[in-house]
């Protein structure tokens, strides 16, 4: 679509935004307070939630699910992906062994039925991300942050513990098992070759000494949440990539590059990889960081498929990506940039997807328009296009071409005047209404000193507890729409169980909104957060607003990632970083370390010589019924 045509359409939609509202109810809603608008959108219906809520869990080192349900650990850090080595409880597995095992810190998960194209609920593929590492647990004697020697072997093991797992699962005699060996099973790591595609591929901003063509990248990392495409491929999102790169020199002759590095917080690393891998030293390979922060697509059904980083979707700290198909067949992909005062984006493909094609539809992710959200206080919203040459994205503001805009999407969004959000994380689309839900986890800096003050879509200063927005559009491709606050977390007058720091979101085929929480270890189980207990997963009725607590996790964990089989009788949930040291326990002398790996948690194995391990939990009803009923 020509840029001038897109801008013309945007202006037309802005002028016609009253037509885009929802009839008389929508016209009235625009003038109502958020709380009143929320009530007008609720409609009476049959109760969705049929289980008895579980109580909050305070320092309980186990999983808790409702009466009538059962939870089973099926895939832990270090478990073999296919035929491979078992996990050593003292974490003494080698780098070569880690390559064949589950990575660390399970995050988002998706289920793909087998055979391809079926809706089989008894046999399929589980694909999940491994976001980052606990350096106190990954090695038997610690990492570069400890008083022990650091080595190339340790670095490679850490790189192999990142990325993505794909395992084959099958139900046999009513019990689920991992198929080993499996022709489908594979691992993606920080060293897996991947292609760059789209407007940035081959651009000077992504060329390096080892890749002068700027088209082949080694690895993916800090894969947080994920998504699926309508054509059945997996999307892994690269989030906090900035924390892997170091630099010691200031770029004195290139202040523009320096400012752009600062905009992405580049220069400080939690890891020591730069000591043995020059890619992570920006003084040596300054463009390497530009090759991360993308959405990665691959075909889970083809173990030989080379993953592709789709640059048209923009470079930022992608939390997840959710899609919605428009009436004309074009597809919208929504993604949040998970950091304080960052933005919500939507990419719309230029062409419609072809239902008769599979992975061949992938080229659609290379051509389209990336937009960023502006939320007005009257309940209206606009999607602003990140197009070179328009709305200030010009050489006068430091942009040279469209690739430059996409690599520096944050800076482009700044110029467009998009709304700075309270850590936009997961986004999910209701399969029936098309409503889009966005979790805003928290932002304790809003309204502090010179930071932005509260606004309509971010209604609390020092937002400790977070909230969830609901967006409504006339079509997936629309450039305008409406928004409302679905729930303010931490409020005692909410319809059901209270919670804090919403993160993972998923709407199942019945329309239940599953909410997962991520209260940080610095706050968990103490002070204003004590009443919430351990991190948890809740179920909400999007129509009535009723919320019930469904699951609580072990000590120190984040509950993240949820998927279901098509018959909705099996649920997969990931438990990340159990045993992460809580400030509460650290003050009592309890700290996870190489010497005391079990000080905080020993879930899920509770092995006398073991350590806490991130894991995938399988949940079913004892009567074989549908989850949530």
Automatic annotation (TrEMBL):
<dbReference type="InterPro" id="IPR008557">
    <property type="entry name" value="PhoX"/>
</dbReference>
<feature type="region of interest" description="Disordered">
    <location>
        <begin position="590"/>
        <end position="612"/>
    </location>
</feature>
<protein>
    <submittedName>
        <fullName>Putative phosphatase</fullName>
    </submittedName>
</protein>
<dbReference type="Pfam" id="PF05787">
    <property type="entry name" value="PhoX"/>
</dbReference>
């Amino acid at each position: 679509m020509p840029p001038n045509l897109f801008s013309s359409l945007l202006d037309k939609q802005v002028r016609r935004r009253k037509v885009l509202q929802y009839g008389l109810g929508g016209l009235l809603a625009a003038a109502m307070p958020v709380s009143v608008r929320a009530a007008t959108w609720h409609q009476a219906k049959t109760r969705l939630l049929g289980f008895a809520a579980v109580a909050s869990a305070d320092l309980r080192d186990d999983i808790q699910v409702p009466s009538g349900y059962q939870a089973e650990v099926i895939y832990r850090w270090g478990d073999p992906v296919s035929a491979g080595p078992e996990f050593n409880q003292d974490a003494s597995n080698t780098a070569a062994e880690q390559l064949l095992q589950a990575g660390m810190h399970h995050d988002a998960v998706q289920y793909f039925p087998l055979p391809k194209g079926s809706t089989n609920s008894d046999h399929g593929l589980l694909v999940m991300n491994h976001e980052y590492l606990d350096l106190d647990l990954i090695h038997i004697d610690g990492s570069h942050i400890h008083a022990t020697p650091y080595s190339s072997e340790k670095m490679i093991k850490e790189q192999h513990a990142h990325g993505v797992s794909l395992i084959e699962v099958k139900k046999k005699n009513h019990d689920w098992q991992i198929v080993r060996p499996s022709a489908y099973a594979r691992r993606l790591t920080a060293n897996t070759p991947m292609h760059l595609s789209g407007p940035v591929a081959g651009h000077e901003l992504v060329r390096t000494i080892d890749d002068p063509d700027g088209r082949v990248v080694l690895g993916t990392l800090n894969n947080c949440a994920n998504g699926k495409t309508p054509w059945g491929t997996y999307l892994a999102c690269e989030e906090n990539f900035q924390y892997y790169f170091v630099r010691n020199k200031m770029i004195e002759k290139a202040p523009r590059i320096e400012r752009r590095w600062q905009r992405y917080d580049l220069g400080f690393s939690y890891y020591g990889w730069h000591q043995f891998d020059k890619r992570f030293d920006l003084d040596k390979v300054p463009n390497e960081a530009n090759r991360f922060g993308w959405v990665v697509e691959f075909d889970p059904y083809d173990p030989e498929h080379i993953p592709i980083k789709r640059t048209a979707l923009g470079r930022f700290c992608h939390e997840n990506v959710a899609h919605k198909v428009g009436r004309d067949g074009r597809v919208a992909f929504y993604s949040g940039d998970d950091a304080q005062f960052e933005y919500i984006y939507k990419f719309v493909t230029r062409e419609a997807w072809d239902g008769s094609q599979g992975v061949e539809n992938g080229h659609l992710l290379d051509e389209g328009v990336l937009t960023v959200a502006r939320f007005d206080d009257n309940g209206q919203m606009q999607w602003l296009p990140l197009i070179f040459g328009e709305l200030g994205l010009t050489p006068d503001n430091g942009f040279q071409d469209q690739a430059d805009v996409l690599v520096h999407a944050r800076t482009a969004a700044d110029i467009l005047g998009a709304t700075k959000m309270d850590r936009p994380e997961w986004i999910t689309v209701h399969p029936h209404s098309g409503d889009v839900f966005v979790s805003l986890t928290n932002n304790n800096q809003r309204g502090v000193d010179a930071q932005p003050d509260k606004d309509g879509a971010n209604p609390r200063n020092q937002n400790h507890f977070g909230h969830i927005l609901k967006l409504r559009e006339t079509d997936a491709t629309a450039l305008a729409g409406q928004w409302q606050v679905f729930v303010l977390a931490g409020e005692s007058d909410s319809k059901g169980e209270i919670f804090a720091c919403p993160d993972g979101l998923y709407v199942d085929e019945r329309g239940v909104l599953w909410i997962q929480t991520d209260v940080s270890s610095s706050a968990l189980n103490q002070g204003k957060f004590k009443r919430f207990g351990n991190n948890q997963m809740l179920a909400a009725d999007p129509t009535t607003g009723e919320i019930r607590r469904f699951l609580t996790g072990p000590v120190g964990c984040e509950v993240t990632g949820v998927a279901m089989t098509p018959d909705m009788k099996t649920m997969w949930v990931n438990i990340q970083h159990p045993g992460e040291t809580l400030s509460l326990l650290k003050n009592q002398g309890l700290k996870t370390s190489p010497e005391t790996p079990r000080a905080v948690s020993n879930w899920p194995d509770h092995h006398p010589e073991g350590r806490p391990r991130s894991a995938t939990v399988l949940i079913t009803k004892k009567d074989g019924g549908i989850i949530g009923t």
